[in-house]
Amino acid sequence: MIKPEKTINGTKWIETIQINAEERATLEDQYGIDEDIIEYVTDNDESTNYVYDINEDDQLFIFLAPYALDKDALRYITQPFGMLLHKGVLFTFNQSDIPEVNTALYSALDNPEVKSVDAFILETLFTVVDSFIPISRAITKKRNYLDKMLNQKTKNSDLVSLSYLQQTLTFLSSAVQTNLSELDRLPKTHFGVGADQDKIDLFEDVQIEGEQVQRMFEIETQVVDRIDHTFNSLANNNLNDTMKFLTIWSLTMAVPTIITGFYGMNVKKLPLAGMQYAWMLTLGISVALIVAMLIMLKVWRKM
Question: SS3 of 18, please?
Fold first, then answer.
């Protein structure tokens, strides 16, 4: 979808969302955007990047934003969105229709302090970076709940939720890191050349916000990994205790089986077979052997 033109302090803004082949052709024919650029900026596998074409004086920005697969389960990945300055016109590409990107664009458009297209781009990036924070807080809340539940009673659903958290943190922390690296590089690119004080302040604001978000996800990743490690250790210990109990129980049951099996043989004149209370004697022998075995296991610290 190619939305109607808007204006940012005299600069045209063309907003695109999930464009199809016909709309790609329109961008090529009507606005003169190269086909390779369109393919690049709408590729869902692209990572954060900034490209300046000195021949065309074009500037291309690619950044990563959070994309919800299942908000209730906190399952997130990241998807790229692009901004292209081409022949004095700003084009934005939100091929995955990311809600956070749409919110960031219109928040920057409605901001009365945004008086240039450069400020619009930086304000958009600031809001996109800021959109990671509510997800981090939701992860913290979910992590605290899972930590409590796993310490009380282990459920498969809780383990699946913990796995989802680890996957989400992997995607988001990687995206935050790459975004921050690009934000640190932007002031040194053509986009930052000749920046006035207002633009420098915007650069610093976006970088500081990116660093804060990065620290939040680093902490969450470390805590969730420790919870997972602790749970695995507890699960292994519980399994060892269970196996030890079953082993001792099987050894205990093996003793009377051996004794009774011996006296159950169809052979004449077995030892003690002629005694009146032979069955009680064999029972006593079984009990004595069981007690002796348990004492030996205790002495050898196997119990």
Answer: coil
Q: Is the pLDDT of residue 260 over 90?
A: no
The CA distance from 182 to 240, in Å, is 49
Average pLDDT (81-98) is 93
Question: In angstroms, rounded to a whole number, what is the distance separating the alpha carbons of residues 228 and 224?
Answer: 6
CATH 3.40.50.720 fits 6-237, yes or no: no
Residues 6+ apart with CB under 8 A from 193: none
CB within 8 Å of 101: residues ≥ 6 apart: 65, 81, 94, 124, 128
Going by C-alpha positions, the residue among 81, 223, 67 that lies closest to residue 132 is 67
For 63, the 3-state DSSP assignment is: strand
- 3-state secondary structure (DSSP) of residue 29: helix
Residues in the chain: 303
Q: Where are the alpha helices (DSSP H) in 32-155?
A: 35-41, 99-110, 117-130, 132-152
Whole-number average pLDDT of the chain: 86
Q: What is the DSSP annotation of 268-284?
A: SS-TTTTSTTHHHHHHH
Terminal CA-to-CA distance of the chain, rounded, Å? 70
pLDDT-derived band at 267 (thresholds 50, 70, 90) equals low
How does pLDDT run across 151-206, given as a tens digit for each residue?
Answer: 777 677 777 888 889 999 999 999 999 999 999 999 999 998 888 899 999 999 99
How far is Cα 203 from Cα 50, in angstroms, rounded to an integer?
A: 15
Show Cβ contacts of residue 56 under 8 Å, excluding neighbours closer than 6 positions: 86, 87
| Residue 30 vs residues 9, 39, 90, 179, 233: alpha-carbon distances, Å | 22, 17, 14, 32, 62
User: Average pLDDT of 13-41?
Assistant: 91
